[in-house]
Amino acid sequence: MNSAPTRVVVVGAGLGGLALARVLQLHGRSVTVFESEASNGARPQGGSLDIHAATGQAALRAAGLLDRFRALARPNAQEWRVLDPVTATAVPFPGPVHDDDSPEIDRGQLRGLFLESLAEGSVRWGRTVTGATPLGDGTWRLLLDDGTSEDADLVVGADGAWSRIRPALSDATPSYTGVTFIETGFDDCDTRHPALARMVGNGTLLAAADSKALLAQRNSNGHLRVYIAFRAPQDWRTAAGLELHDTAAVRAHLLKMFDGWDESLLYLLRHHDGGFVDRPVFVLPVPHTWDHVPGITLLGDAAHLMPPVGLGANLAMLDGTDLAHALVTESSIDDAVRAYESRMLPRSAQAAEDCAKALDSLIPPTDS
């Protein structure tokens, strides 16, 4: 690409958007990231991620951050323990087997690596983009909730499941899969809950049967993140007369749902710290494609929202680095975006199919 200044604006400071910004800056290119959160620490960033060699680690290598990732990552956390729900005895792991080099890292730690690597001021915190409108010459105007706007030669929607940029390219909206994950957790697990810590081991514990599952996932600093997964209508709490803040009532409902499971597993429901967070699983259509539009594109969940079974974050980072590479090697922005989309769209469609099958394997449809 020629060396004329290019106004690249990324909407969303998630892993994919930050990977794009990092690689562009490594090549001396200017980029601005708009993020609605007030700061990096404004909210928890989620659980642990297994970073795959061919995708997430390839992106980190392109970003010059692989060594720093390795220093923080937990290789022993790749371990899976699968227990029979009734007896709590070990059974074979039923899910897909990733490559042997997929160390775990907390999402917040990984995001921090990218943020620390960017030039000061690259991320504009507390700036909420409400939409984008074309200016007629291949450039775009971003509209912000404070009434201001920002013009760009390239807008990249990296703003997640409920992207405000996606409608400029696609009419698709996320749909509910029928699966809900309820999140809770344990602090200082090794000291305060040693028997549970031993049962979980170094990585992730899984028990699944009858279209429901319990998962316990090691995070850093002694935290254990717990997910209670099941199939239910999206309004299951309303139908059950539950308010999420009524932790005791939600716990009683879940214990009834998992009645008959081994007490060592039900410990995850009885003794967790804090309340519950409802995380219904939404996805975009598969394949999700769009006709190329000059000056605008998508990456990560904004482009290919899929079930959370280990591929989404890896693909988002690879999206970001692939787009950055295209922008610094192709002769024009339009050529770069076309080259990127020609790689990303078929790759993400296959991954989304694989993730849907994995979710159905873990939490089978009740009519199957």
TrEMBL record:
It is found in: Cytoplasm. One of its GO terms (cellular component) is cytoplasm. This is Flavin-dependent monooxygenase. Its main location: cytoplasm. It is an enzyme of class 1 (oxidoreductase). Its EC number is 1.14.13.-. Signal peptide: none annotated. Gene3D superfamilies: FAD/NAD(P)-binding domain. It catalyses: a tetracycline + NADPH + O2 + H(+) = an 11a-hydroxytetracycline + NADP(+) + H2O. Consists of an N-terminal FAD-binding domain with a Rossman fold and a C-terminal substrate-binding domain. Its cofactor is FAD. FAD binds at D50, R107, D301. GO terms for biological process: response to antibiotic. An FAD-requiring monooxygenase active on some tetracycline antibiotic derivatives, which leads to their inactivation. Hydroxylates carbon 11a of tetracycline and some analogs. Residues 6-219, 296-352 form the FAD-binding domain. GO terms for molecular function: FAD binding; monooxygenase activity. Belongs to the aromatic-ring hydroxylase family. TetX subfamily. Keywords: Cytoplasm, FAD, Flavoprotein, Monooxygenase, NADP, Nucleotide-binding, Oxidoreductase. InterPro entries: FAD-bd, FAD/NAD-bd_sf, TetX_monooxygenase. NADPH binds at R43. Monomer. It comes from the Bacteria.
